[in-house]
C-alpha cells in the first residue's frame, strides 16, 4: 500500500537480498563479528534459535534419541579414509596446527614454532566420522541396537562468500546419527526424522515445506537415499530446511560398525544421519518477514507479548508500572499453544513510540501499549504484528480492547496468529508452484517472463542416472535451476520426461535455491 | 562394610583418583575420544549436564540476563592487547593457521600451503575480549545499561595432563558478561551471580559450598575482586565450582566500553564476568559417588525412576510390559521437586539383574523391579540408590511396597533423596573443616598426620599483599596447600596472623585443591 510508511528502508519487491540484510539488522538478530565469515547472534536472534532448539529437542527425545557431546577437533586420519577415494581431494576446513601463542618480539604474537602439532587437527565440519568411531566401540551385539544419538554443536566450514544465517563459516546445528540392525529399521528412522522435521518446521516455525526424496545428484556423499524438506522463500527460491539420510551399510563399513546378530554372525549396521541448523532462522526471516521487519510465529517467539508502559518521568509512573506488572502476571498465568504465555514488561528507558517500532521490527507477535488513560478505563491498545496495518487508512491497526477480554482471550489470539502466519505462507507457496508444464522451452520461458520471483515448477521425468542425469543437471544449471525433491505422496507420473522424452516415472520440483 | 560386595573394583579409601576414573566409566558418563585431551560425553553424562544447564539457565534468564552466541575464533589482535603488558607472553591455545586440507600425494592429507591464513585465529579459551568488543559497539548511553549477556559454549585450553570433566582441552561452560553504569551496580551483579551459583549448586546438584572472596593471588587477571564457591570432595580436596568477578573499569578501558551518562559525560562501564562448566559433573561424582558408582541427585537426574520389567521371553511378557507402561504413565503424572517426574521404562534386551547393576552404577535415584509376581500382588520392588545396602545383612535394601502407595508418595520420596544427599555431603564437609589452628607448624602437622583425606583448615591472617603475600603462597605451596577463599559472613578475626604474626583481619580456608 503506497500510503503506508513502512519501518524498513528496503522493500522485498525492490531488492530481496538487501531487504534480508536489513531485517537481520533491524530485528537485531545478528551482526558481523569482525572474524571472517563468523557472525554474532544477538539476544533476539539467539532467543529464537533457543526456542527452535527446545521444541526440536523435545521431539528428538520423544523418539528415544539420546544427546551426547563429541570433540570439536577431528584427527586428519578420519578424513584420509574419505580422501582415499577422491582424486585431487581438497576441502575448505579450519586446520589447527599449533598449540601455543608466543610474543614475536615486535609487539605481536605468533604460533610458537616449538609447539607445532605432530598431526594437525581439523575443526569439525560435521561429526559423522568421529561419531562413527564411537559407534564401532559401543555397538557389539543386536542388544545394543538401535543406537540413536544426537548432538547440538557448532561446526565450521570455511566459506568465502557468506550470508548471515544462510551461509557462515561457523554455524550451530544438531546432527542425529543412528545405527540399526536392518535396512527396514534404518529406513523407518530416516522417515521418522524427516517427518519430525516437517512437523517441527511447519507447526513450530510455521514454514510450510514439501518433504521428498532428493535425486541421485543431490544425495549426501555416501548416502543411499537423501530426503529433504524444502521451504519456499518470498522471492520464490527454495531453502532446504532439513535433510535425513539413509546411509545403507556404507558408513558402517568405513567406520567398522558391526554387531553380532541373534545367530552369532557379525553384521554391518545400517545407519542414518539427519540435521538442521541456524539456517532455519534465515528461512524464518525470508518467509515471515515483511516491509516492517520480522514477524516471529508465537511458538518460537522468545517473548509473545510485549507490554509497553507509556511513562512520563512523573510520579504517576509508579501506578502505571504496577498496573502493567499486574497485567503481565495475569497473562503469564494463561497457557497458549501448550505452554505458559511468555510476556515481557519492557521497562527500559526510552520513548514508547521508538520502543514500539523496535518491537515491530523484531516481530514480537503482540505489542500492548498502556498509558494512564488506558489504565483508568481498564483497556489496552493491542497491536497484532501479523496484521499490522489498516490498509484503508494507512495507519496501524491498533485495537482498543478491555483488559479482561484481552487477558482471557490470549491463548486463542496467539493460536490464531500462529495459524494465520502458516496459512499466509502456504497459500503463497501453493500459488507459486506451477504444474502441468510439459516442454523444456516452457520452463525456460517461465523463468524468463514470470517476473522477479517466479516460484517453482513441477515437471515429470524419467529419473535418468549417470551421464544422462549429469546432462539434465547441466541443462538446469544453465537456467540457474536445481531439482529440489520428489515430493512424498505426489500423483503418479502420467506423461513423458521433460528432459529425455522417455516415459516419465515420477514428478519433481524444479526451482532456484539458496 | 566388609560383607558387602560392591559394584566397583576400586574403593574410594584405596585410591581416590583411580576410583574416580572407574566411576566415570562404570556410570557411562564419558570416555577418551582419541583426540588429545578431548573427551566424548556419553548420553548419561550429557543428560546430567543438560539438566544442570536447564536449571542454571532458568536462573540466568530469571535475572534478566540474555543469551547470545559469539564466534569460536578470536583474532590474534585480541590477545595482543593482553600480551603487551606481559613479558615473555606464552599461552597454550589451539591456533588455526590454514583453511584447506589437500592430499599430500602420498595417501595422506596436509594443510594446503596456498591456504595459509593471513592472520592466524585462536580457538576461544574464553570470549572475554570478543564480547568486550561487542559491548563497546552496543553500549552508547546510560539507557543501554545494564547490558547483561551470557553464552553457553565450548572452549579450548590446551592441556598437557588431562582428567575427565576436571581438566580437558575442550570443555563446555557458560560465561556471563555484564556491563553497568556504576561500581555499586556491578558489585551487586557480582554477588547476584555468586548467590545464583550457590543456590543452583546446593539446591540442584546437592553440593554444599562455601562462598567467599578469593585472596589477591587467586584473582582472575584484571579483576578487582574474584569470588568463588568451593565444594569439598570426598578426599577432602577443594573444587572451585564457580567464580564471579568484579572487573572494575579495567576491561572497559581495554575494550573501550563507554557510555554517555545523564549529564552527557562519557564514562567507562564497570563490568563483571562469571562462569561455571562441565567441571561441575566431576564435582558431582567426587561428592555423591560411592563404592557402587555414582548417585545422581533427583533434580539433575535425566531419569529419576527406572522401571525394570523382569522379562522371560515368554508370551506373559506382554501383560507385564503393559503393567509397567501403566505404572510409568502413573508416575509421570506426578510432580516432584516442582517438575513432572522423569521415569524411564527400560525395555532394552538383557538380564534384569545386569540391567539393575548398570542403573546402580549410573546412580539413577530409584530403581523399580517388577516381575510377574509383583504384578499379581500389585507391588513393586524399590531400590533407593542413596541407601542401597542393608548394612546388617550385607544385601540390597530393596523395599517391597504396594504400587499405589509408591506412586502417590513419589514426590516426597524424591525430595527426601535430594535432601539426604545434600545433608550427607554437608555433614561430611562440616566434620572436615578444622578451626582454631593458630600455629603454622600445627597446620603442617595436621596435613602430615591426619590420614589420607585430611580436609580443610580455617586460619586467621593479616591479609598481606605484594611480596609478603607471595611468601605466604610459597609457604603454602610447599605443603601443596592453597587459600580457597574468605568465607562470606564468617566470624570476625580475633587473633594473630598464622603467617606473619601480625594482627589478623579475616579468616581464610586453606586446603588442597583440584
Ligand atoms: Zn524410503
Ligand atoms: Zn563485594
TrEMBL record, chains A, B:
Q: Which reaction does it catalyse?
A: tRNA(Pro) + L-proline + ATP = L-prolyl-tRNA(Pro) + AMP + diphosphate
GO molecular function terms here? Answer: proline-tRNA ligase activity
> Main EC class of this protein?
ligase
Q: Where is the Aminoacyl-transfer RNA synthetases class-II family profile domain?
A: 45-297
- Name where it's found: Cytoplasm
Question: What keywords are annotated for this sequence in UniProt?
Answer: Aminoacyl-tRNA synthetase, ATP-binding, Cytoplasm, Ligase, Nucleotide-binding, Protein biosynthesis
Reported EC number(s) for this entry are: 6.1.1.15
InterPro entries recorded:
aa-tRNA-synt_IIb, aa-tRNA-synth_II, Anticodon-bd, Pro-tRNA-ligase_IIa_arc-type, Pro-tRNA_ligase_II_C, ProRS_core_arch_euk
Q: Which domain of life is it from?
A: Bacteria
- Chief location bin: cytoplasm
Q: What does this protein do?
A: Catalyzes the attachment of proline to tRNA(Pro) in a two-step reaction: proline is first activated by ATP to form Pro-AMP and then transferred to the acceptor end of tRNA(Pro).
Q: Which family does it belong to?
A: Belongs to the class-II aminoacyl-tRNA synthetase family. ProS type 3 subfamily.
For domains, the record's comment is:
Consists of three domains: the N-terminal catalytic domain, the anticodon-binding domain and the C-terminal extension.
Describe the subunit structure: Homodimer.
Protein name (record): Proline--tRNA ligase
Native organism: Erythrobacter ani
